[in-house]
Amino acid sequence: MNKEELLGFGEMTVKKAVSEGADQAEAFLYEGRLLSISVEKGEIKKAESIVEKGIGVRIAIGNKIGFSYSTDFDEADVVAKRAFQNARASPPDPDFRSFPGPTEFTRVERLFDKKIAELEVKDASELIKEMVESAKVDRRVYSIGGAFFSTAGTIAVLNSLGTERADSLTQIYIYAYVSAKDGDEMSSGYEFNQGRHLAEINPKWVGEEAAKLAIDSLGAIRIETGYYDVVIDPVAMPSFVGFIVSSAANAENVQYGRSFLAGRLEKKIAREEISIFDDGTIPGAYASVSFDGEGVSTSRTPIILNGVLKSYIHNSYTAGKAGVESTGNASRSYDSLPSIDSHNVILDAKGLETKREELLDLRRGILFKETGDRPNLANGEFSGLMSSAFLIENGEVTKGLKEAGFGVNLLDFLTKIDLAGDDIRQVGSTISPSCRIRGMRVAGK
Fold first, then answer.
1. Domain count, the chain
2. How do the pLDDT tens digits run along the chain, 445 residues long?
3. Of 192, 216, 240, which residue constitutes the final position of a domain?
């Protein structure tokens, strides 16, 4: 179905729900295709193209909420009836105010690429093969893994209050995970591309860079435990900056007392040069959308402005509970109720910008490229393992590090940033340069 057809189908479903006796009704519809290819040991392991579609209906009877969904559009009437029955059987929710009404119409450009929508498995297979071949740059490359994903689909959101939005979106993602071996020693490297357009990915570069990182990590050493100046690469920044917005500034976590940012609005939590924004309106950006999962237009929301915590991210439920406007951060699929998530998370460090080479100008420091760990939401403590890191000596990146742990509180992280690089990159939803942190605790030998 195209956008107009989805909207028409959704409108009929909403009218059906209201005719059943709902005070408010909402329909969320999706139809699209996922293309995925996985690689193990240099060979394509699995390739598939999956068509997905579904409709979710949310009903309000007073302050009682019901929900139901189906993957069959022909069951829309049944879904509406089931949602109505679920609402009648649900306990009242005293914090529910209303579904969102229409918001000022905004349209974010360059979120759809016809070339991605028309990709076939054979086309994607050629891209992944190019990535694999480009990773074979050295005899020490031992194993090559990775994956390719692309999605192309249309979303429609409508409700009985007049909200009516639809848009078509594409995304593409490719990554390589390369293992290197020299004698008994092994190491690994990871690299990726992501985007809204096919032209944004370069399989050859991805394979080469993952292999280079794996080879450079051979001969890794253990570093002495102590406090080091650490340069955090953009690839690691989602674990810091991305987490602050998507989890710590998530209004649901704040309202339930789960976040260390609860009760800190209008308080200084970062150095004055630091601002962090949630922005769904950047044309062509990976996490941009014209509207959220409830049909509310997205915007540029200052989370931290000149060091001061200014806002949390909201959907209509948490916004109603707090007595504020939704920030347009409802996140959902057709098979779930709205939750909250970030759009593009942007770190702005005006006055601290410099060239990446200046960040590395340390007599002895650490380049922190990646971690698989997450901070503690309740207190902001972040302890984990640097899964990819390198020693910096006299301004040069020298040896890989192994078994290097780290520990920092996210509030300290925000105050200890002393420089930001010129190497801005989007990783997932986080758009950030490298940042240098003074005096981070690192555990080694």
1. 2
2. 789 999 999 999 999 999 989 999 999 999 999 999 999 999 999 999 999 999 999 999 999 999 999 999 999 999 999 999 999 999 999 999 999 999 998 899 999 999 999 999 999 999 999 999 999 999 999 999 999 999 999 999 999 999 999 999 999 999 999 999 999 999 999 999 999 999 999 999 999 999 999 999 999 999 999 999 999 999 999 999 999 999 999 999 999 999 999 999 999 999 999 999 999 999 999 999 999 999 999 999 999 999 999 999 999 999 999 999 999 999 999 999 999 999 999 999 999 999 999 999 999 999 999 999 999 999 999 999 999 999 999 999 999 999 999 999 999 999 999 999 999 999 999 999 999 999 999 999 8
3. 216
Q: How far apart (Å, rounded) are the C-alpha atoms in residues 442 and 394?
A: 19
**Residue 142 shares a structural domain with residue 123:** yes
- Tell me how many helices (H) and strands (E) the chain has: 10, 22
E-state strands within 134-273: 141-159, 164-182, 185-195, 226-232
Model's pTM, two decimal places? Answer: 0.96
The answer to whether residues 210 and 135 touch, using CB atoms and an 8 Å cutoff, is yes
Strands 43-61 and 64-70: antiparallel
221, 223, 370 from 403: Cα distances, Å: 9, 9, 13
For residues 305 and 271, what is the distance between their CA atoms, to the nearest angstrom? 10
Q: Where are the beta strands (DSSP E) in 62-105?
A: 64-70
Do both 266 and 317 map to the same domain?
Answer: yes
Radius of gyration of the chain (CA): 24
Residue 340's domain spans which residues?
A: 220-445
b/e for 168-201, b at 16 or more Cβ within 10 A? bbbbbbbbbbbbbeeeeeebbbbbbbbbbbbebb
Q: What is the crossing angle of helices 3-20 and 76-89, to 10°?
A: 40
Residue 251 · residue 126 · CB < 8 Å: no
- The Cα–Cα gap between 238 and 247 comes to 11
Which domain CATH number covers 16? 3.30.2290.10
What whole-number distance in Å separates Cα of residue 388 and Cα of residue 383? 15
> Are 196 and 261 found together in one domain?
no
User: Which among 195, 216, 237 is the end of a domain?
Assistant: 216
Burial label, 50 (beta-carbon count in 10 A; 0-12, 13-18, 19+):
exposed
